[in-house]
Structure formats: C-alpha cells, structure tokens
Amino acid sequence: MDPHLLLTAVTLHLAPEVRSGQAVNGVFTVKNPVAHTYLRVTKADWSVLEQFAQPAKVPDVLRRMLEERTCPALRDFYEVVLKAHREGMLRAEPEDRPAAHAVRWFGVGAGWPVKIGWLAALAATAALFFPGWQPSVDGMDLLKGWGLWCAALSVGQLLAAAVVTGAEGRVYRPRLRLLTWTPHLAFDLRDGALGSRGQQLGVLWAALLPLALTLSLLVVLRPEWALPAAVGWIWRLRPVFGGDVARIVELMLSRLRPDTKRDYLFYANRGLYARRKAAVRSTAPVVALVSMLYGVVWVAVVAAFAVHALGYDGAPWWFETGFWLDAAKLLGLWVGAVLAGLVALEIAWWCWRRLRALRNRWRVAFRRRRFELPARPDEKALAAHLLQSPLFRRLAPEQQAEVARRLVVRHVPAGTLLDDFDEEPTVVGLIVSGEAKQHRRGPTGHIERVGRVAEYEVFGAHRVADPKRRVRTRARTRLWYLVLPIEDFRELVVTPLGVKAVEQSAVRHPFLRRTSLCATWHPQALARFVQLTTSVECNEGDVIIRKGEDTLDLFIVQEGRVEVVLGKRRRRVLKPGAFFGEIGLLQNSRIVADVKARTAARCVAINKRDFLRFMTHNPSVGLQVERISSERLGHPIFPLSRQSFDIR
Predict the structure, then answer these.
(1) CB of 43 within 8 A of CB of 7?
(2) Which of 21, 394, 524, 555 could join 194 in a cystine, given CB atoms 3.0 to 4.6 angstroms apart?
(3) What pLDDT score does 158 carry?
(4) How many Å apart are CA 408 and CA 481, to the nearest integer?
(5) What's the rounded Cα separation, in Å, for the pair 21 and 190?
(6) Average of pLDDT values for 333-337?
(7) Residues paired with residue 419 on neighbouring β-strands, in sequence order
(8) Is it the case that residue 132 has pLDDT exceeding 60?
(9) Residue 463 burial by CB count (10 A; 0-12/13-18/19+): exposed, middle or buried?
C-alpha cells in the first residue's frame, strides 16, 4: 500500500491478539501471534499503537495525541505506524486466520546459562592460547572439527529453545539450516525477546554455551580438531554485524534500540543525513564506549590467536614497546581518518545541495531559452496548460474549454512592461514559459518588489481581486504567455469562482509558493493551505499580536514591514516571506514581545485549529513545523509540554 495513502486516508485498527512483553528500561517487544511478527518499541511508540484500539485514521490519531500532549516526535510516530502495519499489528481490514503453530518443548530456568556462560566463555577464550596447542590443517581433522562445530550450534539452539519455553515463551519452526557454512538445527527464538532482561540474557548464553564447552574440551582432549571451533568461537564473539556479545552488552546496560530507530520505512528517515542524525541521537554513550573498548580487545585477541596459530616463537608481542607504539599510531590514524571522513561527508553534502540547486536553475533557464509556443495551439494543448494553473484548474471542464477558445498567444522579450501602477489592466495573462517580476508603490510613494510570477501563474488579475492593489509587472526573461481579455476573464472566471478564489489563486498562491515555509510543499498541499488562509490588513503602528497573549494564529508577512518590539527596543524587522506564531501551533505559548506593523502591511494568517487539521494530513508539513519550532526554541519541541492545549 502506498505509504502516503496509508498515513492520510486509510482507517486502521490494532489487531486484538497483539500482546506486549516485559520492558527493559522502557523498551519492550510486541508480538502478533497470528502473523508471527515482532516489533521492539518504546512506551511512547506503544501509546501510539494503543490509539488504534478503535478504528481510526492516522491524521485523527495524530491530532488527538497533539491535543492530549502525548505525541512522540513525528518521525517516530510515522515510523511506528508504518512498521506496525507491515508486521500486521495495524490492519486496514480484519484477518481471520489461525495463529502460527508452536513446538512443544521442555523448559529450563534462565539463571544457570548466565552463570555458567561467563565461566565457559572465559575458559574458551583462554583455550585459544593453551600452551602446546598447535592447530592442525589436516583435511580429516578439519572436517571432524567442523562437524563438532555444527553439532555444538545445534545443541545451543536446543538449550536456547528450552530457556525460551521456561520463560513462558514459545518456539517455532524447527528446521535444518543446510545452505550455510555450518549446517545445524535452528529454532525461531524471537519469543525470548518478550521476557525480562535476565531471561533474554539466558537465551543468548544458552546458545553460546555448547560451543564454548566444545572448544575448551577439544583443546585439551583433541587439539588437532579444535581449529574450526576456535574460528567459530571468535566469529560468534565479533563486536559488529550481529555478534552475540554486542547484544549482551545492550541488554546488560539496558540500552536496547527500538525498531523505530533502524531499517527505516518512513521516507523522511531514509536519507543519509537523517540516518546520521538519528544514529547519533539513538546511540547511548556508555554502550558506544563499552563496544569500542570491546572491539579493541577482540582485535587484540584475534591478532594474538593468529600469532599463536602460526607458531611464532619470538618474544611475546605484548612485551614489545615498538608494537604498542605502532598500534597507537595506527589507532590515531584510524581515528583521524574517521573524523576526516565525517568532515568530508558534511562538505560533500553541502556542495551537493548547492550544485543541485545550481543545476536546477540552469535547467530551467535552458528550457526557457529553447521554448516556443505555436501561434495557434490546438485546444488539447491549451487545455493542458490551463490544468497546470492553480486558478484555471478550479473551473469546470466546459468553462475551461470556453476559456481555451478565447486565449491568444503572445511573446515578449525580457524587460517588457506588461502592466503599470496607474494603468487599468486590459488583459489577464497566463505565463507558459518565462518569469516576470512585480513591484508595488507604497503609501509614501516608494517602490518595492513584492514578488514574481512564473510558469502557469497569472498577472493582470490583481486589480480584479483587490482594486486598491497597484502593481507593476515587467518581464524578467523572455516570456511566452496566453492572454484573455479582462471582460472575458470577469465573465468566465470571476463570475463562477468569486473574487475570493481569484485572489487566493492569482495573488496569494504565487506569494506563498516562494516563501521558505511553503517552498517544498506538494502543489496539492499548497493549494489546500491557500484555501484555509485569510488576508489581514494592518496600518502603520497596528499591533498584530500583543505581549502576554496566547498565539492562536500563524502569520506570514506578505507586503510591508513588521517589527518585533520588546519594551521600547526593536528586536527584529520581518520582511515579506517571514512568519511568526509557528511555535504556538504545537503548544500553548504566550507572546514574549509585541509584533507591530512598521509600515502599512498585509499578512496571510491561518487559525491554529485549521492548520492542525491541515498538518496532520500532510506529514512533510508537520516535519517542517517541528524542525522550525525546535530551532527557534533552541531544543526539541517533542515531547510536548503537559500544559493544556487551546485550539479555539
């Protein structure tokens, strides 16, 4: 199912058979017995899933959690919804199928594998350096050792299954794993993650214990067979790529990583930059330090075993000063290379974004230079151009066809004046290729730039939408456009749509499209946002929002200048495109300064309730508001403060 459709329009409900395991430092595993799937979540993630106990759509749940102040970070919210749906825990339709069949198995306690496992692990590691042991490379000896290695893995699976059963879990799907380097009997032991920390450690140690005992006994009794088991033991102790010790360290330090922090499904979490930030935020410093130290120890053990296995007879390398100096140099070079790589990645990311923006500008300029429009385009081509326009696409098909019949093609070079302040527009133009800039004359007579219009935006309609608005439009590049006489425009467009719709699509839409807040939004989301906004006129000196009041609206400066005043000091001047009041969209926040109109100004405003409804239906908008609010607050806005939330 399309993720965007799932997150905006599909009704989901939590599968009734889903059950949760025991928490380890706030992280626990959730199981779906019917689909036989598992999901490791935090308490905040589980609170999201519980909201779907009654069928609901994702936007409704998100809006309810925002109002109740219980919503996690939006990236985590959407990630847990997508993963729970993938695992069959959140369903769009009810399922009627039996639960997966479990194997009946004997159970044992989880305490003894942990106690014995530590001793066996130390003994097996010490056996790697047993005096007098020289690994054999004879083919038959290696084959016998390999067979014992496979047998030890199978016994480990049997013991781990017994520990899972003893912890009131279930084991599934016993099978022979033949297509591996070490064929062995394997069980599905994921039910062990439902137990306590001690029970989960017991499962891990039970799986390791037979291999450790096998290696220790072989070194003493059959040293010529011990090489495969030694290699297998070293591999099981690896610090990366799913090694058992890394999982043991996470459990011992109670730093389990939930599934919402890895293998991302939500599109905003899958980028390289987002992955890096998420990895830094979710990595516990203690776990990272212990893992790094263990990695150094593991590398030293591997090196020492290789030296011992090769029969090196010189002085012990750990007593040689030169060895440690060389090791320190190599470690320093490695750390320096990692840091240099991170810096290089940041620089490459910055350069790539700039080059991509430059490439897009060149591509647009090249396309405009080569574009030509026939003097009499066919009606199908004209209809396609009209459908690209936010204004004309709102007309009915028969009205669009009538407009297309009356359109005339025009072409002007850069610098051509299209309409002026004191001239009454005689035509309305729809730009097909090129760009024009617009200026307005202020109350004091000064001229300032108010924006620009480009492909599939109109000029000449401002006087119809707002008779007081005086705008000069001049072609910035070579321009191809379609013109409609002003009388026909009033008849075919203004009459069926209304003046308000014309103002929204012809004036407000082009302005909002180029603001930093709305520039990256999907065209349909922007069109809906424009319909929800209102225009606020301010005279010079008017107070838009007053210090100490609650913010219930988001304001975007469209024309003029707005200043932020604290006491008698002007702290900042906001120009067209700037916005304020965004923090109050997600939490109640009292204004800490007055915001006044420094000159006659116009702002675009939207009510908190309307914006909240709009944001919950557009995930990318919510992520942007979260990011901007966090940057201006100086700390993450989630988790939200527990104070009441007014959405009047």
Answers:
(1) no
(2) 21
(3) 93
(4) 8
(5) 11
(6) 85
(7) 473
(8) yes
(9) middle
* Closest listed residue to residue 192, CA positions, set 178, 175, 206: 206
Whether residue 317 is predicted with pLDDT greater than 60 in this model: the reply is: no
User: Going along 94-163, which residue ranges are E strands?
Assistant: 102-103
What three-state secondary structure class fits 374?
coil
Angstrom distance (rounded) from CA 471 to CA 560:
14
| Residue-averaged pLDDT of the chain | 86
Q: Give the sheet arrangement for strand 543-545, strand by strand.
A: 543-545, 594-597, 562-566, 569-574
pLDDT at 556 over 90: yes
Dihedral-angle region of residue 576 (phi above 0 means left; psi in -120 to 50 means alpha; beta otherwise): beta
Domain 531-633 belongs to what topology? Jelly Rolls (2.60.120)
Question: Domain residue spans in the chain?
Answer: 3-91, 104-332, 379-514, 531-633
Query: How confident is the model at residue 342, as a pLDDT?
Result: 80
**Distance separating alpha carbons of residues 451 and 302, to the nearest angstrom:** 66
608-620 residue pLDDT tens:
889 999 999 999 9
pLDDT band at 484 (very low <50, low <70, confident <90, very high): very high
Amino acid occupying residue 434 = G
At 47, is the pLDDT very low, low, confident or very high (cuts 50, 70, 90)?
A: very high
What residues have CB less than 8 Å from 470, skipping those under 6 apart?
421, 422, 440, 441
User: pTM for the whole thing?
Assistant: 0.83
SS3 510: helix
Measured distance CA(412)–CA(98) in Å, rounded? 71
Superfamily of domain 379-514: Jelly Rolls (2.60.120.10)
Maximum Cα–Cα distance for the chain, whole Å? Answer: 104
Is residue 514 a contact partner of residue 454, using CB atoms and an 8 Å limit? no
CATH architecture of 3-91: Alpha-Beta Complex (3.90)
- Is 522 in a helix, a strand, or coil? coil
* The three-state (H, E, C) secondary structure of 79-104, written as one string: HHHHHHHHCCCEECCCCCCCCCCEEC
Look up residue 27 and give its two tokens: 């992280």
- Given a contact cutoff of 8 angstroms between Cβ atoms, the answer to whether 625 and 615 are in contact is yes
